[in-house]
Amino acid sequence: MSTAMVTSHGRCAVLEEPRGPEGVRLHKRSVPDPPPGKVNVRLRASALNHLDLWTVTGTQRVRTPRVIAADGAGEIVASAAADWSPGDEVVLYPVAACWRCANCRAGRHVFCSGFAVLGEHSDGTACEVVQLPARNLVRKPAALSWAEAGALPLAFLTAWRMLTSRGRLTAGETLLVVGASGAVGTASVLIGAHLGARVLATTRDLGKSEQLRALGADGVFSSDMFSRNVIDHTDGDGADVVIDHVGAATFDESLRSATIGGRVVTCGATTGVNVPLNLPRVFVRQLEILGSTTGTLAEFESLVAAAEAGLRPVVAREFGLEEIRDALTYLKSSDKLGKIVLRQ
Predict the structure, then answer these.
(1) What residue ranges define each of the domains in the chain, with the CATH number in brackets?
(2) What is the pTM of this model?
(3) Which part of the chain is the Enoyl reductase (ER) domain (predicted)?
């Protein structure tokens, strides 16, 4: 798949070299007319993820120059696609795919050999105008502000797939979110509460406990040796679904925290990729260990519908596009829960 399927135009925050925020500079690019099947979207808001920090520091290698950021929402300003017109307000599905292979035709876009996250494997949304396939568009819920809509796509879609498709969480079950202070973790707390689950959370910073409780967590524990607290808090049962994006530092504790027949879902390994695995704990307790990534277009449409029904992202702070370096620095050091949004 050519990364030219998604291109960034107008003022763009371009990573020129991976040396942190200082390696990102604003450039002006011309805005071409969209070819058949594509649209130009004037972004009203985009948002940053920790993926952007890994990209600008070189932890996640990308080809440069690269326009960063995956999240975005805005108004169509030019359309060469049926069903979409200038003035339509949209939220962007944050994934590029070939849209032609058997997996894409079956709606399994995350299995496409050309699967790409915007801002990582293709140009991204830290720009004034993004040109992309009309298939990437979902109508913006009127209930969401531009900042909320711009903050919705990547982290919330990742959490949505983990909880609904992979973890099969249902109302009344107990959900444990390990590493709840991060973007995926915070999204998982909000989504779990929205779905009617009892939500427990861990964090390295217990100073964020009240913030997490305000988002819907029933109990908040230190990320250090948390399984005993989880077992005690659930009267010996454990959690039906455990979300772990932390990796080596917490995974054994996550397995210990799951109830018999529980589902442990992982989407990341920020503290290390190799974990000790007590196999008897897995097979004797009938545990499921499930891998996950960000989601499909159908899952994104379900997420947007949930936002229409009351699910709301948390926005920690807004910056102008010209403040991109400050925004990246704030993302790295902030002690606030929620997304960092770029106003366009």
Answers:
(1) 3-152+313-343 (3.90.180.10), 156-291 (3.90.180.10)
(2) 0.95
(3) 20-342
